[in-house]
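Note to self: keep these together.
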Amino acid sequence: MSGTIKSKDHQKTVSELKDLEIKIENLTKFEQGKSAVAVEMELLQQQAIVDLSERKAQKGKAILLFNENSQALYEAPGTLSIDVSKTGFKFGVTIERSGSHGIGNMKIFCYDLVLAQIWVEKSISPRILIHDSIIFADVDERQKALALELAARESERLKFQYICTMNSDTIPTKDFSKGFNLDKYVRKTLTDASDDGGLLGIRF
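Structure:
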């Protein structure tokens, strides 16, 4: 009887030992995998740093364009920063008087415009920038007018298309610079006043 008990105890010990060996093996593989991923991430980060360094001229131009675009709206130039972190490229934008939702939207506007300004230098590029009216939500009327004027000016100068949708009651008519006529840029007016006031069969 004692021999049977000893045999069962031995089998249990052997089974537990095998389970432990499997756990150790899995843990070893997991740690090796973590090390491999860490090495790969470090290599990717170094490659990104080298790539950004080789594009120093393009980086400088993007920063300068953002400064100019933001200065056209707020007199003082904003700042665009481009760096590399462990998770990849990191872009930061700041504009003096930051804090309100409206200025946050204008950061996006200035950054998007930079992309359009750079794209036009490529032989193959979208050559088009589209903004929905939400980009101007809570933006001061003066900055809204300056942004539209800037987009019109840059799209004409660089030959790309800028499209923006806006509700008629949010157009900063009184804040446009003297001589700027928004009407000449209006291509389509949507209204629910008549059956033909929609777009693609959709009534607004």
